[in-house]
Amino acid sequence: MMTSRVENEKALQRAENRLNVALKMGNAGAWGYNIDNEEIWATAEGARIYGFPPVDGALSIEVVESCIPERERVHQALIDLINEEHEYNLEFTINPIDGSPSKVLRSTARLEKDEQGNPLEVFGFVQDITETKKTEQALQKEVAFSTSLINTAQLIIMVIDVEGRIQQINSFMEAITGYKEAEVKGKDWFDTFLPSADNTKIREMFKKAIVDIDVSGGINPIVAKDGRELMIEWHSKSLKNVSGTIVGLLSFGVDVGERIQAEEARKESASIHNSILRAAPIGIGLTQDRIIKWTNENLLLMLGYSNDELLNSSARVLYDSEEEYLRVGQEKYQEILRANLTQISGRLENTLSQLKSPQLDPSVSQINCTEWIEQVEICFFPKRL
C-alpha cells in the first residue's frame, strides 16, 4: 500500500514537472483564485512572469494586482466571470514586482463550481506575449507604411486572385477609373475593366504572369467607369503564401496615354520634316563625325552619286578641295558644336549631263535631323538651274 502511494506521488510529481517545463517553454504559467479566502496561487512560471521568485505557491491578490496599471479593468473581468460567467480573455500590461521591464500578458480563465453549482474557484493561464506584441506592432507599422505608399503612388496597383477576381485596387486606380474598390472587389477583372475585343488575349497573358512567366511591359487599354479607354503599361509579379503556393497576382500599371500621343505627334512631325528635307529644291546632306549618313534626292542628283555610293562615305566628296574640307573640320565644326546647326556652302562642278536619278535608301529615309545635333554637319547646296 505504501509503495503504491509513493509511486503515485512520484508519478504526480513527474506530471507536474512536465507541465511546468511546457509552460516555461511557452512563457506561460497557470494560476488559480480561491473565492473563499481570496487567495491567488501560481505555478513557478506564473510567479516568475510577475517578478516573484519562481516557485509554486500562494500570492496575495493585492500584491499581484498592484503590478497591473489597468487594475480596475482586470479585477472587474474576474468579478464578471464569477458573478455573470462572462468570458475571461484579456490582454494587459504589467510592471513586474522585481522592477524588470514592463510586459504584455494574455490571461484566460474559467470558473469551477461545486456540486450545487455555486462558484468555487477560478482556474486560468497567463502568457507573456511581449515579444509577440512587439512583432505585431512592427508588422503593423510596415503594413501602414506599405499602405501609405500604395495609396500615394501615382500608378495603378492592383491585386487579383488566381481566378482573376479583383482583391484590391489603390487610390490612384480609383481616381483614374472612377471606380471605388468596394464596387469592384470580388468581380472578374477581365469582364470589369477590359474591352471585349481584348478579353481573350489578356486572359492568356494573365495565365503566363500568374506562373511567373515575364510579360512585363505589355500595353493594353482598360475601360473606365465613364467609358473612356486608358492605355496602361503593365508589370506584374505572382504572390505566394508561406508554403510557396501561388495565391494571386500583384500588378503595377502606368498610364501611358500621353506618352503614346506624344510619340505619335513626334513621328508625325518627323515625317513632315523628312518630307520637307526630301522635297526641298536644294541639295541637303547630313553627316556624323564627317561621315555621310543621309542625303536628299536632290543632292544625289547634283553630285551624280547613287545613295549606296554616297552613304557612309567621307564628307570629303562634298567639298571642292582638301583645303576646304580641312578648313570646315577645323573652323566650322566649332560653330556646329556651339550652335548645333550651321550652313556650309560649296561649289559643285558636276555638270547636269552627269546627273542620275537614284532612289533614296529606305533604311535612312526616316532620319530625323534633330537626332544629329552636336555631332552632325548639315550641308545645304543651292541647286543649279
Low-confidence runs (pLDDT<50, min 5 residues)? 340-385
Percent helix, as a range, is 25-40%
Domain count:
3
* Oligomeric state of the chains present here: single chain
User: What is the string of SSEs from the N terminus onward?
Assistant: HEEHEHHEEEHEEHHHHEEEHEEHHHE
CATH topology of the largest domain: Beta-Lactamase
Under CATH, the homologous superfamily of the largest domain reads: PAS domain
| Count of helix runs | 13
CATH architecture of the largest domain: 2-Layer Sandwich
CATH class of the largest domain: Alpha Beta
Q: Strand-residue fraction?
A: 25-35%
Rg to the nearest angstrom? 42 Å
Mean of residue pLDDT values: 78
Q: What structural class do helix, strand and pairing data support?
A: alpha+beta
Termini separation (Å)? 137 Å
Largest sheet: 6 strands, antiparallel
Biggest sheet strand order reads 3-2-1-6-5-4
DSSP summary, beta strand count? 14
Shape: elongated
Key words describing this protein structure:
Beta-Lactamase, alpha+beta, single chain, 385 residues, elongated, 14 strands, 5-stranded antiparallel beta sheet, 13 helices
